[in-house]
Design a protein that fits this description.
Number of helices: 24
CATH topology of one domain: Pyruvate-ferredoxin Oxidoreductase, domain 3
Strand order of the largest sheet: 1-7-6-5-2-4-3
Oligomer: single chain
Helix content: 40-55%
Distance between the termini: 54 Å
Mean pLDDT: 87
């Protein structure tokens, strides 16, 4: 998908001659061909009457070797005889003509550095995302908003051209650099023709065919983006995902028993839970939501929050009911689709063998959770039994799922799925789910805003092992404050702040301080 956020009229396809220097900054990550793109531009300039210089400034390792490549070009015809232009070694904020970003966060870095200006800069950026380490390790949703990054580019640039250039490169079997090179050619910002751009790729002599295909795809995407944008069409509702014949009855139940605004989320819920367990489990999902549907406020003024409450409750219930256990992990790691996906990511050929090593470290708690409820409780409560099992859980082990032995080991664990409803973890989680939903149903008629925050608090309960234990502990601490929050006029806002504090760090310090402040405020009141 491509889009343009362009303030002035679209640039001409014909390059205009210049009599001054041209400055270009390229922000790219390791392995994306940023250096090749810079070398192409230098060759393009030198072969067509320009002096050119390129430098590179390494970036942070957390961005897989993010680097800023800086180029300056100066026309030979404008250089006095016997003299050479003096070119800078790094970009200066406010003095860059063209900025190219290989990924949306790299575009954000360009904006943060002040390289993009509204009176000067043509800004070409790919809309795909490679999440940073801080985004990946955040306890909550730590992703930077793509919409805000795009809006920032629109506000800052003279001309802002975007497309998923990574997808174009993948489709043509090339790297992203020639696709970005083609987009730059299409802007007409450099005084060179398309043929001159393409000749540079041909002179390189490596991967010429695929690079030219990616160049053409990037060029066409930029040309399309430079056209005036058509008026946006706002969809009336989120499209409902299709279901197969096994879920047809449940789909009909959703259509007849729940509000239209919630159909997409509920349908996604039954699809997820049928995949996680079976159709009966998806039926149980709708059964659990039925009391909430009856308890929602009927006042037309509260229709919006009622729909939001049902939607968020349905989404978080589906996530909670599909909790991660050893059976789920084994199931996902032995699916054919996973082997196909990994093979595609590493570009596996027919002559190659794919080896996948999984690092697994189940604790005794995860083992007990997988056992039938009574046996699991016995294992956790019996000292000698724990002493026999725990030595095998102190160190993790590597399992090669691409080998017959490793695959069969996880396949046997995944085959225990029919036994999951009798497991200790199932019993514990569904008791917790019942209590959580009960609180929402109780609050919904009169305190729908607080009920909504209770529903959203479920995002604390996720993962497995230490992550799950920490999240569940924070959830319990917050829910213990619910009776106090019900009596507070700003109860919903206070509950939301507590959840955000729990997600702020894994030490629990931020949550502890806010819980203490909440208690002090309640006592004072």
């Amino acid at each position: 998908m491509s889009a343009v956020l362009d303030k002035p009229a679209a640039a001409s396809m014909q390059p205009a001659p210049v009599k001054h220097g041209i400055t270009i900054a390229i922000l790219a990550m390791g392995g994306e061909g940023g250096g090749v793109l810079a070398d192409w531009l230098v060759d393009l300039a030198e072969q067509n009457g320009y002096y050119a210089q390129t430098t590179s400034v390494p970036g942070v390792a957390q961005r897989t070797g993010a680097t800023v490549y800086y180029l300056e070009m100066f026309p030979e015809a404008a250089t006095p005889a016997g003299r050479m232009p003096v070119m800078a070694l790094s970009p200066v904020p406010g003095d860059v003509d063209v900025v190219i970003a290989s990924e949306l966060m790299e575009a954000g870095r360009a904006l943060q550095r002040g390289l993009v200006t509204a009176d000067r800069t043509t800004f070409v950026a790919s809309t795909h995302r490679v999440y940073s380490m801080t985004e990946r390790t955040a306890m909550g949703d730590g992703r930077v908003s793509a919409e805000k990054l795009l809006a920032g580019g629109q506000a800052a640039a003279k001309q802002f051209i975007t497309a998923d250039f990574a997808l174009l490169a993948e489709t043509t079997g090339s790297l992203i650099s020639p696709a970005l090179y083609g987009a730059l050619a299409a802007t007409g910002r450099l005084p060179f023709t398309r043929a001159q751009f393409e000749d540079t790729i041909s002179r390189g002599g490596v991967g010429v065919k695929s690079s030219l295909k990616a160049f053409a795809a990037g060029f066409d995407a930029a040309v399309q983006a430079l056209k005036p944008a058509a008026p946006a069409v706002i969809a009336s509702a989120t499209p409902v995902p299709p279901v197969g014949p096994k879920l047809a009855a449940l789909s009909h139940r959703i259509q007849s028993g729940f509000a239209l605004a919630n159909h997409a989320t509920l349908t996604a819920g039954i699809l997820r839970l049928a995949d996680y367990q079976d159709v009966d489990y998806a039926t149980r999902y709708l059964d659990l939501l039925q009391p909430l549907a009856r308890a929602l406020p009927v006042d037309p003024v509260q229709a919006a929050i009622a729909a939001e409450l049902m939607d968020d409750s349905a989404r978080h219930l589906a996530l909670w009911m599909s909790y991660e256990d050893t059976v789920r992990v084994a199931d996902l790691k032995t699916r054919r689709s996973r082997f196909n996906r990994v093979g595609g990511e590493v570009k596996l050929s027919q002559a190659q063998h794919l080896g996948i090593n999984e690092f697994l470290h189940p604790r005794i708690e995860e083992i007990a959770d997988t056992l039938p409820a009574g046996m699991g409780r016995w294992l956790l409560a019996t000292g000698w039994a724990r002493a026999c099992v725990e030595p095998f859980t102190r160190k993790g082990r590597v399992v090669q799922t691409s080998s017959i032995r490793g695959y069969l080991l996880l396949y046997v664990i995944a085959a225990m799925r029919p036994l999951r409803p009798r497991s200790l973890r199932f019993e514990v989680e569904h008791q917790r789910i019942s209590n959580w939903l009960g609180s929402i149903v109780q609050l919904a008629p009169m305190q729908a805003a607080l009920a909504l925050e209770v529903a959203r608090a479920q995002r604390l309960v996720k993962g497995y092992g230490d992550t799950h234990a920490r999240g569940w502990g924070n959830f319990q601490k917050i829910m213990a404050k619910l009776p106090q929050l019900q009596a507070m006029p700003n109860g919903p806002a206070q509950l939301k702040a507590l959840v955000q504090a729990a997600l702020a760090d894994d030490s629990g310090d931020a949550l502890g301080k806010l819980l203490a402040a909440t208690t002090a405020t309640t006592v004072t009141t």
